[in-house]
Every structure is written in C-alpha cells, then in structure tokens.
C-alpha cells in the first residue's frame, strides 16, 4: 500500500467567483470552476488530495482556515482584496500550525499603490503572484515540495 496522500486546502477570496468575466484584461478569461479543475488535476499528478473553497465573506474564510488546522497539511490562499487590509484573516493564518502559501493571479506589486502591500505576506511561507492561473499550479508544486521535505511546518 502506498503513502497516504497529503491534503491541501485552496481558498479563494472575494470576487474570484466572477473570474472569466471580471476585468479579463487583468485576471484572464478562465473561470473559477476551470481553475479548480486545473488545481484538481495538478494535485492528483503530484499525489496530493485537494479541496477548494471560495467565499466573498471574510468570516467564512476565517472559519475555513481554523477548520483546516489538523485536517490538512498545507493551505493555499488567494485572499484577493482581503490581502490588503484583513488583519482578522492574517491573524487566523498566523494561528494555524500548517504552512500557508499566498497566491495572486496578477502581480500585485505592479498594480495600484493600495494593492502593493500584503498584510498576509508576513505570516505565510511564501507568495506567488503574477503568473495568472499558473500561480495556483506553482503553489501546488511548492506545497508538494514542502510536504515531501517536511519543511512546511511553522
């Protein structure tokens, strides 16, 4: 019998349910459903189990983060607009014992000034931004490496 698959939770923040029609010149034309399918396929290829969850509500994302502790080995999050001001989400991410990877479709550092600061970045293992849908897939590869090496623990 093979090694037990590592579990990863992918969280998508506010307005990401509108991907594919929301500012396609910035975020592309791929829908969230299509992104989740790509995430699922990539996770399977890496020997990971993955669950995806999207919410426009800060509290729902915080609940998901807290519930992930002990159920998953890694968390990948695109906090979207919460990146720039949600101290509550940041505190939840800091409190869990699993490694967290921050993801953004666009390069937040090449956009408007208010988007260039992440309150989330100081409490995550790393951040991947600016590669569109591939940002999520690169984050899954990073998660697999962290979990394989055992370097993912906080």
Automatic annotation (TrEMBL):
GO terms for biological process: amino acid biosynthetic process; aromatic amino acid family biosynthetic process; chorismate biosynthetic process; quinate catabolic process. Substrate binds at residues 78, 84, 91, 105-106, 115. The keyword Lyase applies. Its EC number is 4.2.1.10. Pathway: Metabolic intermediate biosynthesis; chorismate biosynthesis; chorismate from D-erythrose 4-phosphate and phosphoenolpyruvate: step 3/7. It holds the Pfam family DHquinase_II. Homododecamer. Belongs to the type-II 3-dehydroquinase family. This is 3-dehydroquinate dehydratase.
């Amino acid at each position: 019998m093979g090694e037990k698959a590592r579990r990863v939770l992918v969280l998508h923040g506010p307005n990401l349910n509108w991907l594919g029609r929301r500012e396609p010149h910035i975020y592309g034309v791929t829908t969230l459903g299509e992104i989740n399918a790509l995430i699922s396929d990539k996770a399977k290829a890496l020997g990971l189990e993955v669950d995806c969850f999207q919410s426009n509500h800060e509290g729902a994302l915080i609940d998901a983060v807290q519930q992930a502790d002990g159920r998953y080995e890694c968390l990948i999050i695109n906090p979207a607009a919460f990146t720039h001001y949600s101290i509550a989400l940041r505190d939840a991410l800091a409190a869990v014992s699993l490694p967290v990877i921050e993801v953004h479709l666009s390069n937040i550092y090449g956009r408007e000034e208010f988007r260039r600061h992440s309150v989330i970045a100081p409490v995550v293992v790393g951040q991947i931004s600016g590669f569109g849908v591939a940002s999520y897939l690169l984050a899954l590869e990073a998660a697999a490496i962290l979990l394989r090496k055992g370097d993912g623990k906080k």
